[in-house]
Amino acid sequence: MTLPFPRDAAAFVEEIREAVGMELSLVLTDNAVTMISVRRAGKKVSVRMHHMFLAACPAVMSEVADFIRETRVKTPLMRDFIKKHEGLVKKQQQRRVSCATAGRCHDLLPVFDAINQEYFSGGISAGITWGRSCGGRVRKRTLGSYSCRTNTIRINPFLDRKRIPGYYVAYVVYHEMLHADMGVEERNGRRSAHSREFRRRERLFRHYEKAMAWEKAGGC
Ligand SMILES: [Zn+2]
After folding, report:
1. How far is the CA of 93 from the centre of ligand 1 (A)?
2. I want to staple 78 with a disulfide (CB 3.0 to 4.6 A). Which of 63, 71, 144, 183 is the partner?
3. How far is the CA of 164 from the centre of ligand 1 (A)?
């Protein structure tokens, strides 16, 4: 199940920019703990919001724009919208089990759930699944990916082998969950998925050093 997102993310960001009328950096995230946060530095505003807002109607969007400009305004429609969609996000989390998480050697779901609790206060609602292998052969270039459009993390089935340590699979899952949480930052018109902040948080993973060492020693 996916939430109904009638808008394209890029068009949405433009829409908000126009409505707010300020210099704005906007990141769509999958962190369901903080639905919307606004940070001001001089004339610049940085906004992070859950991608559920892609489904917001114009009346809600207008309140969101007001909220970004002036955080203390009243936002009854925005609150209602968040409440309603929080429920949908939770339902989505429960139905996630239908994805193919149990591989031959590694099961992604318990890994995902443990990391979600430990590092994200359970706030990541993305689905997770093994990717499809093409005719038994898998390309190992991309170990994992996160799609903001479908809110799904895909892990390369290449990693579903005995010789791949569990902590390494967990590291790849954590990396993709960080993408879900942080969204894709846009700086000077260029999209940077691995910002300095991303790299900083990546190192917080308890098996980060071990995973890097294993990768350096030959890895996959
Ligand atoms: Zn990445």
Report:
1. 22
2. 63
3. 19
Whether residue 125 contacts residue 149, with contact meaning beta carbons closer than 8 Å, is answered with no
pTM of the model: 0.68
Which amino acid makes up residue 203? R
Q: Number of H helices and number of E strands within the chain? A: 7, 8
Report the sign of the C-alpha dihedral through residues 172, 162, 125, 207, in that order.
negative
217 backbone dihedrals φ, ψ, rounded to 5°? -80, 10
* pLDDT tens track, the chain, 220 positions: 344 555 677 788 888 888 888 888 888 888 777 889 998 888 788 898 888 898 888 899 999 999 998 888 999 999 999 998 887 776 666 555 445 778 889 999 999 999 999 999 888 988 899 987 654 555 556 899 888 777 889 999 989 999 999 999 999 999 999 999 988 665 555 666 788 889 999 999 999 999 999 999 887 7
C-alpha of residue 193 to centroid of ligand 1, in Å: 6
Residue matched to tokens 């940085």: 46
Contact of 10 with 159, CB cutoff 8 Å: no
Residue type, 25: S
The single-letter DSSP state of residue 137 is: B
What separation in Å is there between the alpha carbon of 189 and the centre of ligand 1? 19
Domains of the chain plus CATH, in order, are 9-92 (no CATH), 99-216 (3.30.2010.10)
Measured at the CA of 63, the angle between CA 58 and CA 64, to 5 degrees, comes to 90
CA–centroid distance, residue 202 to ligand 1 (Å):
10
